[in-house]
């Protein structure tokens, strides 16, 4: 039997799990043999603290919204989340961020860490950086590049982001899967026979980042802290 894969995402009050920020939404979608199953887990979580305005602008989850949803504290759902992901391969975009928050929340409850639960972690951001070096590799950028419809994504949300990430992951790993014999001979033959047309123009079209993409870029640089070579270069310049 193939190992379970969980497409996973979280939303939080901020960027720093070691400085008082808390998890406010968890979503995980199960996939087996590259097919989504009907098993998933989606929970809103009350952070038991205030919600910074900048975080609410990203995901739309104010304390009032969470209370309207009767969101419980993490202590009420932590064991359920831990059991859901136990032993699975976790597919996460910028995995260090989400795993850091899950491990912080698990530790507060005395639960095992993600690693201790036997999870393997696959970071789609790392895959994207290897496949598309020097390009923007946010989830939005990858959806655009790979033809994944993200029209329903008005705000960041763990559930919708999982759905998009699942499609992005399948698209990025399709060739590798085919090389491992995952595709049928009929599909492989059709793919080989299909003509490939590459449009060429005299000059490249420059697509500049919009305000949301710039904000996501800055958020990611913030999450790197002192390890961010880009910020170091700006300081030294």
From TrEMBL:
<keyword id="KW-0808">Transferase</keyword>
<keyword id="KW-0239">DNA-directed DNA polymerase</keyword>
<dbReference type="GO" id="GO:0003887">
    <property type="term" value="F:DNA-directed DNA polymerase activity"/>
</dbReference>
<feature type="binding site">
    <location>
        <position position="161"/>
    </location>
    <ligand>
        <name>substrate</name>
    </ligand>
</feature>
<keyword id="KW-0460">Magnesium</keyword>
<dbReference type="InterPro" id="IPR013520">
    <property type="entry name" value="Ribonucl_H"/>
</dbReference>
<feature type="binding site">
    <location>
        <position position="11"/>
    </location>
    <ligand>
        <name>substrate</name>
    </ligand>
</feature>
<dbReference type="InterPro" id="IPR012337">
    <property type="entry name" value="RNaseH-like_sf"/>
</dbReference>
<dbReference type="GO" id="GO:0005829">
    <property type="term" value="C:cytosol"/>
</dbReference>
<comment type="function">
    <text>DNA polymerase III is a complex, multichain enzyme responsible for most of the replicative synthesis in bacteria. The epsilon subunit contain the editing function and is a proofreading 3'-5' exonuclease.</text>
</comment>
<feature type="binding site">
    <location>
        <position position="9"/>
    </location>
    <ligand>
        <name>a divalent metal cation</name>
    </ligand>
</feature>
<dbReference type="InterPro" id="IPR006054">
    <property type="entry name" value="DnaQ"/>
</dbReference>
<dbReference type="InterPro" id="IPR006309">
    <property type="entry name" value="DnaQ_proteo"/>
</dbReference>
<protein>
    <recommendedName>
        <fullName>DNA polymerase III subunit epsilon</fullName>
        <ecNumber>2.7.7.7</ecNumber>
    </recommendedName>
</protein>
<keyword id="KW-0548">Nucleotidyltransferase</keyword>
<feature type="binding site">
    <location>
        <position position="59"/>
    </location>
    <ligand>
        <name>substrate</name>
    </ligand>
</feature>
<feature type="active site" description="Proton acceptor">
    <location>
        <position position="156"/>
    </location>
</feature>
<dbReference type="GO" id="GO:0045004">
    <property type="term" value="P:DNA replication proofreading"/>
</dbReference>
<dbReference type="GO" id="GO:0046872">
    <property type="term" value="F:metal ion binding"/>
</dbReference>
<keyword id="KW-0540">Nuclease</keyword>
<keyword id="KW-0464">Manganese</keyword>
<dbReference type="Pfam" id="PF00929">
    <property type="entry name" value="RNase_T"/>
</dbReference>
<feature type="binding site">
    <location>
        <position position="161"/>
    </location>
    <ligand>
        <name>a divalent metal cation</name>
    </ligand>
</feature>
<dbReference type="GO" id="GO:0008408">
    <property type="term" value="F:3'-5' exonuclease activity"/>
</dbReference>
<keyword id="KW-0235">DNA replication</keyword>
<keyword id="KW-0378">Hydrolase</keyword>
<feature type="binding site">
    <location>
        <position position="54"/>
    </location>
    <ligand>
        <name>substrate</name>
    </ligand>
</feature>
<dbReference type="InterPro" id="IPR036397">
    <property type="entry name" value="RNaseH_sf"/>
</dbReference>
<feature type="binding site">
    <location>
        <position position="9"/>
    </location>
    <ligand>
        <name>substrate</name>
    </ligand>
</feature>
<keyword id="KW-0479">Metal-binding</keyword>
<keyword id="KW-0269">Exonuclease</keyword>
<comment type="subunit">
    <text>DNA polymerase III contains a core (composed of alpha, epsilon and theta chains) that associates with a tau subunit. This core dimerizes to form the POLIII' complex. PolIII' associates with the gamma complex (composed of gamma, delta, delta', psi and chi chains) and with the beta chain to form the complete DNA polymerase III complex.</text>
</comment>
<dbReference type="GO" id="GO:0003677">
    <property type="term" value="F:DNA binding"/>
</dbReference>
<feature type="domain" description="Exonuclease">
    <location>
        <begin position="4"/>
        <end position="178"/>
    </location>
</feature>
<feature type="binding site">
    <location>
        <position position="11"/>
    </location>
    <ligand>
        <name>a divalent metal cation</name>
    </ligand>
</feature>
């Amino acid at each position: 039997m193939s190992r379970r894969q969980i497409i996973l995402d979280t939303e939080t009050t901020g960027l720093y799990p070691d400085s008082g920020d808390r998890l406010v939404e968890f979503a995980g979608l199960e996939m087996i043999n590259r097919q989504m199953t009907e098993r998933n887990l989606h929970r809103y979580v009350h952070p038991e603290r205030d919600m910074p305005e900048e975080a609410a602008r990203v995901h739309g989850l104010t304390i009032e919204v969470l209370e309207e949803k009767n969101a419980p504290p993490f202590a009420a759902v932590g064991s359920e989340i831990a059991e859901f992901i136990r032993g699975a391969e976790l597919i996460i975009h910028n995995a260090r961020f989400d795993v850091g928050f899950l491990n912080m929340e698990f530790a507060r409850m005395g639960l095992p860490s993600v690693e201790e639960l036997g999870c393997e972690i696959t970071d789609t951001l790392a895959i994207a950086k290897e496949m598309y070096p020097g390009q923007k590799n946010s989830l939005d950028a990858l959806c655009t590049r790979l033809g994944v419809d993200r029209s329903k994504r008005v705000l960041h949300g763990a559930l919708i982001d999982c759905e998009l990430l699942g499609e992005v992951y399948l698209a990025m790993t399709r060739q590798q899967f085919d090389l491992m014999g995952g595709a049928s001979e009929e599909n492989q033959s059709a793919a080989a026979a299909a003509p490939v047309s590459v449009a060429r123009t005299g000059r490249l079209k420059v697509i500049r980042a919009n305000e949301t993409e710039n904000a996501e870029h800055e958020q990611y640089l913030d999450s790197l802290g002192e390890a961010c070579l880009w910020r170091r270069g700006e300081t030294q310049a």
